């Protein structure tokens, strides 16, 4: 309490009040609404869109997210008897006890899931020449499966695509690791016999170099940031929302609001951090609450792309079904004429 009192006594309230009275930056959206964002995308001002996404864009594919109470992964790990749910992705815990991670990996291994409408919406942004980059926290590789180019992707929490020995760093392919995992074997390095781990980022490990190499330039040039299916709880990923210019509009499509500015931080003078959807000073942040797939379809509708998106999803799902020799999708693709 004393420390807080000291802290508050050093804050210059006059300065804070002035900060609050500062003029807000230029508003680029014709109106601060979902429709306003669509109008802005259609204008020639919006050429570089960045998408930031998380586990919520893949729940419709059947992959659980992490933090949704009840269905999220962290509420369903009791059988592993972990010291804490996140331990399954902690590097020090993994080195001591890799079994829980590999048992889970077997369930979640890429290859058994189909991208969602939201993944194909990202692909559509790329096809329209509007996607500067998609920054994903997901390790399910569904952006790649949807056809988003590797150059357009930053897999910020790594990927199952490749794997390395945790000791000598010898590289192993996804197929080699997958074969072991599906035989319930723990993959060990052929050379030094240490553990081999897919290149997904565990707590306690640095993010890939590509994340740091691209983020500053990408976010400086960003004309619109679309955040989808993430609780924005994990840093440094979550703080990317503050990397765009003060004027850059930001759209959140999610089941719940997140990433809002922390009132305490604001009081302490860090007013720029986080998004502001609701205050009377809101000038660039828009929130669409609901399922990502519905949000993407609603946006595609306003952009006149809805039929194109639905056709893309349907055709791609059929192709995946055929390639995996599963029963062909019974969904009927929309005809070119219908909206
Ligand atoms: P979370 O589980 O923390 O958040 C998922 C968000 O998506 C929540 O806000 C859900 O309400 C929302 N959501 C779920 N399904 C949705 C749907 N169909 N439509 C719209 N919204 C939906 O997942 P992340 O934010 O991705 O890191 O988690 C971030 C990181 O925490 C992960 O990358 C992982 C984890 O620990 C590591 O393992 C390093």
Automatic annotation (TrEMBL):
It holds the Pfam family SIR2. GO terms for cellular component: nucleus. It comes from the Eukaryota. Binds 1 zinc ion per subunit. Its EC number is 2.3.1.286. Keywords: Metal-binding, NAD, Transferase, Zinc. NAD(+) binds at residues 55-59, 65-67, 137-140, 230-231, 254-256, 292. One of its GO terms (molecular function) is histone deacetylase activity, NAD-dependent. Its cofactor is Zn(2+). It is an enzyme of class 2 (transferase). Residues 27-306 form the Deacetylase sirtuin-type domain. GO terms for biological process: rDNA heterochromatin formation. The active site is at 157 (proton acceptor). It catalyses: N(6)-hexadecanoyl-L-lysyl-[protein] + NAD(+) + H2O = 2''-O-hexadecanoyl-ADP-D-ribose + nicotinamide + L-lysyl-[protein]; N(6)-tetradecanoyl-L-lysyl-[protein] + NAD(+) + H2O = 2''-O-tetradecanoyl-ADP-D-ribose + nicotinamide + L-lysyl-[protein]. This is NAD-dependent protein deacetylase sirtuin-2. It comes from Ciona intestinalis.
């Amino acid at each position: 309490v004393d420390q807080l009192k000291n802290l508050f006594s050093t804050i210059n309230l006059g300065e804070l009040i002035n900060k609050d009275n500062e003029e807000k930056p230029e508003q680029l959206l014709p109106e601060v609404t979902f429709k306003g964002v669509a109008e802005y995308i259609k204008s020639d001002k919006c050429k570089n869109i960045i998408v930031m996404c998380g586990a919520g864009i893949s729940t419709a594919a059947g992959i659980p997210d992490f933090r949704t109470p009840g269905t999220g992964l962290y509420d369903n790990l009791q059988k592993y008897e972990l010291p804490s749910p996140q331990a399954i992705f902690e590097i020090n815990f993994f080195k001591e006890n890799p079994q829980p991670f590999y048992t889970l990996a077997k369930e979640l291994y890429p290859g058994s899931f189909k991208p969602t409408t939201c993944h194909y919406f990202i692909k559509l942004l790329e096809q329209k020449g509007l996607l500067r980059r998609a920054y994903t926290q997901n390790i399910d590789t569904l952006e790649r499966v949807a056809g988003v180019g590797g150059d357009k992707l930053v897999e910020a929490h790594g990927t199952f695509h490749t794997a390395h020995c945790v000791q000598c760093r010898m590289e192993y392919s996804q197929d080699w690791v997958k074969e072991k995992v599906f035989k319930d074997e723990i993959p060990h390095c052929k050379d030094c016999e240490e553990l081999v781990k897919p290149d997904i980022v565990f707590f306690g490990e640095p993010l890939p170099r590509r994340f740091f190499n691209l983020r500053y330039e990408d976010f400086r040039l960003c004309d619109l940031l679309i955040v989808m299916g993430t609780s924005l709880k994990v840093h440094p990923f979550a703080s990317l929302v503050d990397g765009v210019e003060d004027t850059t509009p930001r759209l959140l499509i999610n089941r719940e609001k997140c990433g809002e500015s922390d009132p305490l931080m604001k009081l302490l003078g860090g007013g720029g951090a986080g998004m502001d959807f609701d205050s009377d000073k809101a000038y660039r942040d828009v929130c669409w609450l609901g399922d990502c797939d519905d949000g993407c379809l609603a946006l595609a509708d306003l952009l006149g792309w809805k039929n194109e998106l639905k056709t893309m999803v349907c055709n791609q799902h059929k192709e995946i079904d055929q390639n995996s020799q599963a029963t062909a999708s019974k969904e009927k693709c929309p005809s070119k004429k219908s909206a």
